[in-house]
Amino acid sequence: MQIEHIQQVVEVDTPVRNRLGQRIQQGLSAGEFHLVFQGIYRSRTRELERIEALIRWNHPDYGLLLPDTFVSALHDDLEVAVDVTHFVIDRACAQLAACLRAGQMAHPLALNVPPSVAAQENFAAEVEAIARMHGVAPELLEIELVETEDTAKILATRTLTRPLRDAGIHISMDDFGTGYSSLALLSAMDVDTVKLARELLAFVPTRQRASAVIAGILALLEELDIRVVVEGVETADQAHWLEQWPNVLVQGYYFSLPTGDLSAVLDGIDTTRRSTSTAARTLGLR
Fold first, then answer.
1. Which of 50, 131, 179, 211 sits most deeply, having the most CB atoms within 10 A of its CB?
2. pTM assigned to the model
3. Which CATH superfamily is domain 3-284 in?
4. What is the mean pLDDT of residues 99-127?
């Protein structure tokens, strides 16, 4: 069975999604999941600014599965979503702690979290406890919420953000610009970072209108004093165009591919493979 077919079936079949949730929990227990890390850099200086942790599933039958293949189960089953989130936070903190003990420079680490998990009453306390158990300062963590219909409203009302702020944990919104976010809520949202959806950059800088849209968004977020990460930077032309905004952060294949070696990212070792092969792109997908 092809991975694309698996994803199509999961999206429309509730019983399949339920079984997928159970299989994910089995996979967590069996050690089938692991993390990879991708650097996020300053647009002009190319200096490493922060890092994102991404989950991967080494399925014994289907090989390497990316989050898009199994993320629907996290939306449908809170227990599965919590288990996966705790796995990501624990493994990320463990690896970051090992790097810090080896004397490497600390950089903030972004962790993808479903909004349903982040909205749980004890979530901030659990994140802080896991971080401190590994000897990692909570201030080094940034909780990255995928943009959903509820995320912007939650962030705007601050019912979610206050406990995270009290713990010193940073907050970002992922995939901004193509989904549910309202510009009317943007000024009220309590976020440190907004990550622009990669679709916004797809035709930049070759198409004037596409370039004008993203330029306007960058100017607006800069005026609101919100840190911006532009995802999906794949070409030298895109990277050069974004240098107009020296405070903008960039992420994508052009700068580095995800790697399981966090220490290599922290040391600034070049993990890029400027190949356009299917294999290289598959490894780079989120």
1. 131
2. 0.88
3. EAL domain (3.20.20.450)
4. 95
